[in-house]
Amino acid sequence: MDAAQRTLEEVAIRHVIDMYFSAADSRDEGLWRTCFAPDAEFSHCPLGGPAEAAHVGGEAVARIFQTTRASIASHHLPCHVRIEIDGDEASAETYAVAFLLFAIDSGGQRITVRGLRYRDVLTRSSDGWLIRRRSHTSMWQFDTEGIPPALPEAVTSFLRT
To answer: How confident is the model over 30-51, as pLDDT tens digits?
Structure first.
């Protein structure tokens, strides 16, 4: 594969990874499903802990999408992606930071910030690249109190003038 073709393939793979994050943050189950092969496997592994049993098959993987509804809102920010391509198979390792907003019983909000690593095996199909196997690892996290979004006082003061 020449350099130009390799770049095109990497862009197509990165597109699938970005669409996964977009689907999670926009709560778009249809888009989420387009990211995975019909026989996909998805597992979660906390750092240093044992991996969960893999969710296997399109419907099982799609059920994981329902976990996005636990938070009020989320933003997944991919940091860097390393991609290796071997014919119609590829592997990708993506590091990301996720910001998750949750309602709490007292009426307030909690923000969980998580460092994540995704290890993917992708396959080329007639529809393009699809995730066939995904391992989702929580590397670290912390929680903080959420506050209602508002413009900084300097901005609101300027707007009043």
So the answer is: 999 999 999 999 988 877 777 7
CA gap 43, 159 in Å, rounded: 48
Structural tokens at position 40: 């996909």
Q: What share of the chain is helix, strand, coil (3-state, %, to 5)?
A: 30, 50, 20
Which string of DSSP letters, residue by residue, matches 22-76? HHHHHT-HHHHHHTEEEEEEEEEEETTSPPPPPEESHHHHHHHGGGGGGSSEEEE
Measured between alpha carbons, how far is 77 from 36 in angstroms, rounded to an integer? 20
Mean pLDDT of 144-157: 78
pTM of the model: 0.87
